[in-house]
Amino acid sequence: MKRLIILLSLLAAGPAWAHGVVWSVNAGASVVEFRYTTDEPMSYAAITVQAPGDANTFQTGRTDPSGRFAFIPDRDGPWTVTADDGMGHVSTATVPVDGGRTAIAPPDPFMGSSIHEGWLLRTLLGLSLIGNLGLAVAVRLKKCTT
Predict the structure, then answer these.
(1) pLDDT tens, position by position, 23-43
(2) Which residues lie closer than 8 Å to 140 by C-beta, 6 or more apart?
(3) Which of 2, 11, 76, 77 lies in the 20 to 30 Å Cα band around 124?
(4) Which positions carry the signal peptide feature in this UniProt record (predicted)?
């Protein structure tokens, strides 16, 4: 009876995700690209984002290597995004935001969004479960014979 309870406990336990990563896409994200007049990107420039009608800083960060920075506005109106490369070049962009912020649900990162996606992960999880059960049985049998 004790073995049955242990076996059922192992089977009932869900998979343990030790540090998974998920993603989402937000169609309401605003992307600003800063470039020098030579068409070279303002890479890693310091960014400050101001919300409409708010004196407080909404967000800070840095541009990517291509001079781009994205933020997700939480209200309509003209947003102010300022880039400063720390070498005397400062540029301010006004980003008009007018509704249409709709989040797009991401696919399931573990099982995939179609029947063919995620098969590898499901197969590996199944093999891991079978292997762990086999190991537990072998350890248990070894203890019984000694």
Answers:
(1) 666 667 889 999 998 989 999
(2) 3
(3) 2
(4) 1-18
